[in-house]
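Database export, one record per block. Field names are fixed; values are copied verbatim from the stored entry.
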Amino acid sequence: MPADTISIIIPTLNEMKNLPHVLPVIPDLPEIKELLLVDGLSTDDTIKVAQELVPQIKIIIQTEKGKGAALKYAWKRATGDILVTLDADGSISPREIPKLIEPLYNGCHLTKGSRFLPGGGTIDMPLHRRIGNWVFTTMANVLFGTKYTDLVYGFHAFRKDILETVDIESGSFAIDTELYLKVKKAGLKVAEVPSFESRRIYGSGNLRSFKDGWRILKLIFRERFHG
């Protein structure tokens, strides 16, 4: 059994209907030390449902808005050696966690999911987002010498100690892209694994394609020319 412990981090905002499709499906791995739910002041029963499903879940109340703020808040409070980010909307199957963390036991510092590797896929990416992701991924590969296949996807795991090397600033959805670029700039080892993205089960997401796309574009140029 691996000696490393794992913290699963789940950002939420009004996800009470989706959690029953996510929390019970998280694999029962002995190295999982804690589940951290980072709630952005939900107005429904998200926290109550989470506690009913997993009584030992740790609840963190997020005071700043944004996915990036939620993740940074949780990263500081997580106690595992490995941190895994999992969406609460049911779009990513928790059953993919074992293959996501496997490269971290074999010398990698960060593992990211990719919808565009063989074995991956998506049914939740309209054409304009698909084009935008391709443009951003291609730009990153040209400007940073990376070989990513999917730059804008938030399913990832990494060793917590890399946060001593990379300083993440984004408070928005751009945090995933910032993490992937800064880890490579720091010379750390990254692996991609295939991942399948379904549609969220209930409700609507908070991603705003053009607004968040503009943030990611600015981030890429900032990290390349001013970082």
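Remark 1: The first strand starts at residue 6 and ends at 12.
Remark 2: Strands lie at 6-12, 32-39, 58-61, 82-85, 110-114, 121-122, 156-159, 190-194, 196-197.
End of record.
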